[in-house]
Amino acid sequence: MTLHPPSPCGHSASLPVYQAHALRNDARHHILVCVGLPDASDLRFLAELPQRVPHQHHCLMLEDDGDGNLPPAQTARLMPLLSEARTGWHLYLSGPEAGLWPLYVQAIQAGMQPQEISLHRHDSAMRPIYCVHCGTRQQAASQAPQPICGCCGVALEIRDHFSRVQGAYLGVVANADQPYARAST
């Protein structure tokens, strides 16, 4: 008996699904939030919004730290728009993966529903990871087979599981026989 049947789409059901920008025709108002520098797709979407939905959109550009992480002052800039949001509004979040998820959580906490939020991830060599041993959220190279936790020093195995609450892929100790051993260098 299989406790966790494979996903019909071929990947873990917890992994986020990112989309190309597409205007939601069923939405009455549109909010586009770009984290960091806009990519080519963002620029096309920015040009499309005023033509297709004049007076029914907001655009917000947030500055990241260069790795996709948002300082709290930047994250707070979304709150005034979320406080105005009503049924029929759609939020488009675009940027590096690390910057999208704090905004996603903020929007959910403000009362938006997951189906009212579209996520567009920029290509990045980094991905957010969460060390379950020390509770630290950090960045690691996307292709790193066993990144080292920058806080507790443990070599981590990155699971095929994404925590939307933490906004990161979960990392567990790579060597279960030595769960508290620091990685050797």
Automatic annotation (TrEMBL):
InterPro entries listed in its UniProt record: DmmA-like_C
Domain of life: Bacteria
Pfam families linked to this entry: DmmA-like_C
Residue ranges of domain Dimethylamine monooxygenase subunit DmmA-like C-terminal in the record: 129-172
Protein name stated in the entry: Dimethylamine monooxygenase subunit DmmA-like C-terminal domain-containing protein
Species of the source: Lampropedia hyalina DSM 16112
